[in-house]
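Q: Sequence in, structure out?
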Amino acid sequence: NSGPSLDCSDGEQLELGPEFLGLSGVEALAQHVVPALPNLRILRMYCPFGALDAAAQQLFLLEVVPQATGLEELQLHVDLSQEAIGCLATVLPALKALRILDIRTGATVLECHARSVQTEALVRAIVDTPLQCLCLLGGVDLREHLDILGLEGADI
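A: Exactly. Output:
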């Protein structure tokens, strides 16, 4: 076994830990791992503490995630860069089966740009996605976006 181990029970669930940090790990995912999982429904990435660099984040969101066309659950426990948030906003509309979106980033990352163009784009993309469950932890202050979400006065 040369590469990092994958928890890939029955090809429907993929859990990625810190061993996939860096471009080479993400490139391997894009080229070899995800294409071999046509039934992938759950994708989880756990790379806390900003360990996944910005370039790898963008590659992951633009090259890996869109290949999982049947994805129902996407968990990103990653300190997402602003660019990555923009990438996520771009790919979300293509994930027609997505029902659960769980993003947990370091609070500092998103707080500094809660009103940024990218975050706003992400919120708009989320509104257009028929999610059953949404978790945004770490400074995506949705109160800033209640107008877009159509949730004025809602208890978030």
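The beta strands are 13-16, 42-47, 73-78, 100-104, 133-137.
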